[in-house]
């Protein structure tokens, strides 16, 4: 079970306090007479807030169970994200055996290795062994049509939806001197900073956005939203230094790094959606689309954050 020390309690109170304030603002806005377009934005905002409440409650309950709860939670997130990625890439009969291995063998094994704190194997299992096995299994089916394309799509899906995301609960395996039994706060720090960056980029973009960063790819991502969201989320991350093994400036620089990576992850996932001609990866989360729509930023931020902390602090 997770130990709720004073710092962790304060962190959770701040998180749910922000959600309570957002809910109040959303309720007030819903009672104001506005234009139809503004009304649509407000309805979307309130749907996102309700989804955030649900996701935060589920995440905290899972983390309260300690390493097992966190590993199971992220394994389920990876499963749904992988399913969404594979759904977007039409497969052939020759891929089915390889996909069975991806969903029901490799994914559970990856998270089992995380739970066992087997870093030496966990770090290479998918990018080495799974990446060699997948094309071999597809080749054994004898179907060579679009072989390279089919293999690359499955490997990319495994890399993003499983390998990268598994680095988030892997933070719990790190042994940081003077920070023993507190790693759950590192996981919360990562999720809070990265997800707040997404929210703040959206807010700054809606309030001040004029110049799209990549108009053909994502017209809603603006220069103003990017700068405002990244800087404000980095400042919030720096202000949370007391819950981490970092100093104020270290927390700020690391927050800047993971928010930039989060932006890159969201941009790459948007490119995939535009390529496939869809708006969202799925519709399982009200106001947020699919699972991958919610964790796209985490895909790029989690592995780099894990290795930075492991290299410099563990």
From TrEMBL:
Instruction: Name a GO molecular-function annotation.
Output: phosphatidate cytidylyltransferase activity
TM segments? 50-77, 120-140, 160-178, 184-204, 225-243, 249-272
Q: Does the keyword Lipid metabolism apply?
A: no
Q: Which UniProt keywords apply?
A: Membrane, Nucleotidyltransferase, Transferase, Transmembrane, Transmembrane helix
What is the E.C. number? 2.7.7.41
Its top-level enzyme class, in one word, is: transferase
What are its GO cellular component terms?
plasma membrane
Q: Name one GO biological process term.
A: peptidoglycan-based cell wall biogenesis
A Pfam family annotated for this UniProt entry: CTP_transf_1
Q: What is this protein called?
A: Phosphatidate cytidylyltransferase
């Amino acid at each position: 079970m997770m130990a709720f020390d004073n710092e962790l309690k304060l962190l959770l109170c701040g998180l749910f306090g922000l959600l309570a304030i957002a809910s109040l603002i959303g309720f007030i806005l819903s009672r104001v007479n506005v234009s139809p377009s503004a009304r649509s934005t407000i309805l979307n905002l309130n749907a996102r807030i309700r989804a955030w409440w649900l996701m935060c409650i589920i995440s905290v309950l899972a983390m309260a169970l300690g390493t097992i709860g966190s590993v199971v939670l992220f394994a389920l997130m990876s499963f749904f994200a992988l399913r969404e990625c594979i759904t977007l890439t039409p497969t052939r009969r020759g891929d089915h055996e390889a996909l069975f291995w991806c969903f029901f063998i490799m994914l559970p094994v990856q998270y089992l290795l995380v739970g066992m704190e087997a870093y030496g194997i966990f770090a290479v299992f998918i990018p080495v062994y799974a990446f060699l096995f997948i094309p071999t299994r597809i080749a054994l089916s004898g179907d060579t049509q679009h072989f390279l394309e089919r293999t690359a799509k499955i490997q990319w899906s495994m890399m993003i939806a499983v390998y990268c995301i598994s680095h988030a609960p892997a933070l719990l395996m790190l042994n940081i001197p003077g920070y023993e039994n507190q790693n759950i706060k590192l996981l919360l720090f990562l999720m809070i900073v990265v997800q707040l960056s997404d929210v703040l980029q959206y807010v700054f973009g809606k309030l001040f956005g004029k110049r799209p960063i990549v108009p053909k790819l994502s017209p809603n991502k603006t220069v103003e939203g990017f700068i405002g969201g990244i800087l404000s989320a980095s400042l919030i991350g720096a202000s949370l230094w007391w819950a981490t093994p970092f100093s104020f400036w270290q927390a700020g620089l690391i927050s800047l790094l993971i928010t930039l990576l989060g932006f890159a992850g969201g941009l790459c996932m948007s490119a995939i959606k535009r390529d496939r001609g869809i708006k969202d990866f799925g519709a399982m989360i009200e106001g947020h689309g699919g699972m991958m729509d919610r964790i796209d930023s985490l895909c790029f931020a989690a592995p780099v954050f894990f290795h930075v902390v492991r290299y410099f602090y563990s």
